[in-house]
């Protein structure tokens, strides 16, 4: 394989360094992951105290909440990326020479 192929995995890069690099590229991905883990953890904790609610309904609500958090984080990431790439250069750069 070619060495300039950006889709190939770097053999020396560990999981933590890859996560840090990806976090710099798109900062809302770790927010989405953390929110997903938080919602799922809370939902599993509340599973014990669901009273007369069916388990399948509880899991459906849990899935919708977790997906909603992730979609919201991705949407914020896209909006931030659009701001960074298009709006900020247009209004805050005086001249490009």
TrEMBL record:
Domain of life where this protein originates: Eukaryota
Signal peptide range in chain numbering: none
PROSITE patterns registered for this protein in UniProt: HIG1
Transmembrane segments annotated in the record for this chain: 27-45, 65-83
GO biological process: mitochondrial respirasome assembly; response to hypoxia
Compartmental location: Mitochondrion membrane
Pfam families for the chain: HIG_1_N
Location, primary (coarse class): mitochondrion
UniProt entry keywords in alphabetical sequence: Membrane, Transmembrane, Transmembrane helix
Record's GO cellular component terms: mitochondrial membrane
Residues covered by the HIG1 domain: 1-92
Identification of the protein by name: HIG1 hypoxia inducible domain family member 1C
Organism in which the protein naturally occurs: Microcebus murinus
